[in-house]
Amino acid sequence: MERTIVQPRFKDAPHFKDFWTKGNGKKLIEFSGAEVSFKNFDKFSPYFYHVDELGDMVVKDIYLTKNFREASREIEEYIRNGIPDNEKNPESIKQMFSQTETIPEWLNNDLLKSGAELCMRANLDSLISLRDYCLIGGYDFAYLNKPLIVTEALKKGAVKRLSETLDFWVNVTRYNALEIHHKGYEFAIKTRIIHSYARLSIRKHYKDWDTENWGEPINSWDMMATYIGFSLVFLHSLHKLGNTFSVQEEQGLFHLWKYIGYLLGIPENLLPENKKQATEFFYLWTSVQPPADKDSVLLAHSLLNESLENPILKYKFQRRNLRYLHICCTWFLLDEDVCKRLQIPEVSNKKVFPVSKRIINKIYDKMVSRNQRIRKGNKDQMKVLTDYLSITKNSNFH
To answer: Where would I find the ER-bound oxygenase mpaB/mpaB'/Rubber oxygenase catalytic domain in this sequence (predicted)?
Structure first.
């Protein structure tokens, strides 16, 4: 069956126009110096129906021919030690590990280091940005959420989902994490396989998947947008919270996520080099995404209520206060229209905490050395991750 050619179908819709003329989209253009237009739309739109076929073949050849534990042990052995020359492995395994073990010519280790240092140096602001801007803001794009809904992510619960996201993010953003056979490299390969496994499951079990409108499950264009969330949107959030960063750190952040995307099997021409390019790429993708629907609201409220369900804090008043602070940050970081669509609760004095944080960050940046901030940020982020893993009994990655 011949597939319909994708059009920028929401380019005249109020949610798209308002985002890019009055909301965070306008701020991203100002922040990045982007020149947005639809002239390159046809170069990107085919990726709405493009997926990581190599990852899918690995899942078919390994996971669908053996029991799950045996398959997982085999993949872990390859990730940590490479593929033995004398073993008769499926061609898909040879091809995937040949790709991930080939260091691209463009890779710059100094930039990877700078990107990792920015992620650590921003300390808990990094985690606030990921949660209250990148993650919850992504729920406003209704089609992007469909794989989460059909794989019943809501039933798994926000605590578990947040723990897994944090586990991935922390482990790919440490020093030397992405070297072949190191821990960040392992997380990238496992994430790639999880995506393929989920995609094949959706294709097999969810007969109502609307490919024409939603694209292929976990398609390459949606993957591009997700990783722009980890780079461009993350950087913009740090900026909003009063963090400063050097040109080297900014370039490093995009370089870091470009390489992670490469390991995940995202086509290289979808991985932006800088904030200008990322904003221009993001503009095109948002034109095929409708605004938040009822599923988006459920996901957003599940994330907001995670603070109430999470037993890391002992007392109820502490959990309620943490939820309040996250709501304040969400209103501060996201557009008002987006918050209303996601039905983020109205709270009193919602600007006090994020504005105070912004002021404190500007002072802290001047008073404490960069190296001290990196060390403290790494320590504090690892503490949060350890707390989450202790209550979720580890994550799917292990």
So the answer is: 157-347
